[in-house]
Every structure is written in C-alpha cells, then in structure tokens.
Protein 1
Amino acid sequence: MSLPKEVKKLVERFQENRDVYCSTAYNETQARHEFIDPLGHKKSVTQPQINTPDNQIDQLVYELYGLAHAETRIS
C-alpha cells in the first residue's frame, strides 16, 4: 500500500529538516501547524478552554501555599 501524496510530502519535509524538528526550539504548536493541520485534523479545544483550567489550577496552588495575589505575579 502506498502513502497518500500529502503524507509522503510531509514525511519528506520532515526528513529534510529533521534537525530543526527534533530541536528543543521547535514546539508542539509548530508541529501541529505543519504536520497535523494539513491532514485535516484541526484542534478541537480553543485557547480559552485551555486557559480556564490552567487558571483554576494556578489559583488552587496559590491558595495551597498561602500566596497573596501580588506574590503570584512574575516580574
């Protein structure tokens, strides 16, 4: 069975730029944009949906350690 044309092109691009794609500077968002989205798989979770649980977790941790609001800001 042969690979679909689009998948073959993505594999070739990865092989040609493997060092870049395997570096720590290349992140998940870039990988999704370059390799997953072209195949028609769009992310189903929006950034606000991700941020809400993250913010809730942050607040619980702050409360757990007794941190005031001013202490939680990053300079």
Protein 2
Amino acid sequence: MVSLLAQIPDELPERAAQIVDEVKANPVLLAMLIGIGVITAAIFLFGIAKQAFKAAIVGGLLSAGAWYWYFNIR
C-alpha cells in the first residue's frame, strides 16, 4: 500500500483541489456533473436489471426443458 501511495505524483492532489474549486465556483458545471452522474447511474442500473431479467428467462426455459425431458424419459 505504501508503494502505491509513493507512485502518486505530487501535483495530483493540487490539481484535484483546483478542479474542486472550479466546480464549486461554477454552479452550471456542478449541475451538469450531477446530471451526468445521475443519468449514467440510471443507465447502469437499467442494464443490470435488463441482464437479470434475461438471465431469469433463460434459467426458466432451461429448467422447464430439463423437467420436460426428465418426465418424458421416464
């Protein structure tokens, strides 16, 4: 962990502070960043829900197929 912290350039914390000050000074930029963050989070969650729904459908079809195959073999 210490070696990872040693690799961070010295000017990075200063640059981060400058960016924070710019965002605080510009409410339009702040609103844009918040809006973009909310939209991308919603898209991310929608993608996860969509994939879970697809997985549930595939799992249900495979399960139904396995039960159908099992009872027709007997």
Protein 3
Amino acid sequence: MDLGRDRALYGMSVTAELTGVNPQMLRVYEAKGLLEPYRSDGGTRRYSDHDLERIDQITTLLAAGLNLAGIDHVLRLQAETRHLQAEVNQLRARDRRGRAKTRTKTREE
C-alpha cells in the first residue's frame, strides 16, 4: 500500500532517529523556513518521507560547508529550476502538438 511521500507519518523523535538530526536542529530548520512539517490540530509536528529527504539534503549541504542561509538559497534555486523545467516541458509539448497539427493540415491539402 503506497501512502505517498507527502503523508505525515513520523513524530519528531522518530524523525530525529531516522535522520540523525536532533529535535532542536529540526526546530531550527523549521524556524529558518527550510522545513515545513505538518502540524496536527494539537500542534504536534509530523514528518513525511518527503520531509526526511529534505532533511537529508540539508545535512548534505551542511556537510559540504554551506550555512543555513546558503542552504535556503540553494533550495529556493532548486525549486525555481524545477518550476522552470516544468514550464519548458509544457511549452515543448505544446510546440510538438502544434507541429503535428500543421503536418496533418498540410497532408490534407
């Protein structure tokens, strides 16, 4: 059963154990806007597999020598790149459809 990468399954202590990042640092990542765990109605943080991947990415960038501000910049640039790539892909698909219609019209004439 696939519950999805974005389903918030893990509490803070489990997340800390799985990632090797202590709860205080998880709170710091959240305060700096690097991480946005789901909050239950009672305010309990819940982390998803996507969050675990993000924490892994943050720790990798920290190990490479970046500070939290630098990591924030890298993560924003990566998100922008993904967004722009999706737009490029849509434009390419639209262009292919347009070319296919043009070829079909040319053949019909």
Protein 4
Amino acid sequence: MTDKMKKTEGKIENGKEEKVVGTRGRIFEGRVIKKFHKRLTIVFNRMIYIKKYERYAKSRTKLHARLPEHLEKEIKVGDLIQIRECRPLSKIVHFMVIKKIKDAEEVKQWIKIWNF
C-alpha cells in the first residue's frame, strides 16, 4: 500500500467510500437555526470584554457545522447541540456535530424561564 492510498482510506458503506474526519480543538454548544443537507448553522451568545470601557458586551456568534448522516434525522431546527472543531471542510465549515443535548421543546421552555 502506498502513502497516497493510506491517506484516502475511509469507511465503505453501500458501495460509497466515506472519508473519516477527525475532530480536535474547541467545543461549543448552540441552538440550531438553519438546517441544510449535510450542514447546519448554530447560534450562541457570549460575553466579550471591552478593554477601553472596562465592561462586557453581549455578542452572538453563528457557526456552520458538518452534519453526519447518522445524526441527520435526529437533529431538527431549535435543538441544542454540541459541535467540535475539525479541519476545514469547505469555505465556511470548520466544525463537526458531536451530539444532541436537548430537544427543541426543552430549549423553548428553558428560554421562557430564563427570559433569553
């Protein structure tokens, strides 16, 4: 086996070869706002420190993540999910979905209680 063959090895299911993508780096939790084929967009709030004013400001961040086939039917818009950094998969996708944390209904109840 040559070096080129080793690099392109992956899972073979139903006659298709699927590349294995390793994850590393940062982990984020966010709410799904858009869902596409094999991709989704999540949003989460964070606090940014502004040095000049010595204060914190609220900020919202949107990230695009790859959606694996085994999670595609399970995850819906509004769900709380966990994503993890991976190698760049396209121009905007640099994260991979790891798992679903809460259902959309549970997230809505939590938002009403905490007034977010």
